[in-house]
Amino acid sequence: MSEDQSCILHHFSHYCSLSSADKALLASLEESPTDITAGSLLWELGDPAGEFCTLKSGWAYSYRHLENGDRQILEIYLPGDIIGLREFAFSQRLESVRMITDGVICHFPHKRLLEVFRQSVPLTSVVFAITSRHQALLTERLVTLARRSARQKTAHFLYEMYLRLRQTNSHTDGQFRLPLSQEQLADILGLSPVHVSRTFSLLSEEGLVFRDRHNVTIPDLQALAAVGEFDDCYLNDDVRPLLELSA
């Protein structure tokens, strides 16, 4: 598999420089790819947890269903992400995961990641950095759900998605594809679908965000970040200090 084809390699390379041996180890996590269609369930809450999967292409999300039938979307996964890292220490799945779009996934057992840890300090550091950032994303999402207005929630989420997508695609330039339905956006932001629609209309009237179906344009990134009270410290992804300590 070439470097241009490997999303996980592109993802990890954003954190630090990788040796040829590190790249080969990462490529081994994308062996035996499986095509999967939009809406497919990867696993359900309570299923046995004995493997991870890399998202080679496509988008996915994790979620929990409440007793009243409501759904809360917890996290959005993008190409290059490893899904299931939080469950490494657990025997059962803590959340359900479903595909948003068509994509390609690669399954690998927990023990394969332990082999990576044994063979590469840089990759171990990056995996811990990614896990820490996932936790920070959830913490920030909790603050958003509990304390921010609908306008702030939407602005914050859109700017966060823009930054995450820019990590593996430097040509986003304020425009990106957001393949989420109105209902999915509502379940991410803790709003009703109608409220989501009204909020996008408000942001459009203010000239902050323009959405055409699944295509989003942000004319002034800094203005949108200000509306969302966005502080990108939790997306800090430079693990070079960690690598210097481990040298």
Word description of this protein:
By secondary structure, the chain is of the alpha+beta class. It has two domains: 3-141, Jelly Rolls; 150-228, Winged helix-like DNA-binding domain superfamily/Winged helix DNA-binding domain (Arc Repressor Mutant, subunit A, Orthogonal Bundle), CATH 1.10.10. It contains nine helices and eleven strands. The protein has helices spanning 7-13, 20-28, 110-119, 121-147, 150-168, 182-189, 193-205, 221-227, 240-246; strands at residues 34-36, 41-43, 51-57, 60-65, 71-77, 82-83, 96-99, 103-109, 175-177, 210-212, 215-217. The protein has a four-stranded antiparallel β-sheet with strand order 1-8-3-6. A four-stranded antiparallel β-sheet has the order 2-7-4-5. Strand 4 and strand 5 form a beta hairpin. Helix 5 packs across helix 7, helix 5 packs across helix 8 and helix 6 (182-189) crosses helix 7 (193-205). The protein starts with 6 loop residues before the first helix and ends with a helix. The model has no long low-confidence stretch (mean pLDDT 88).
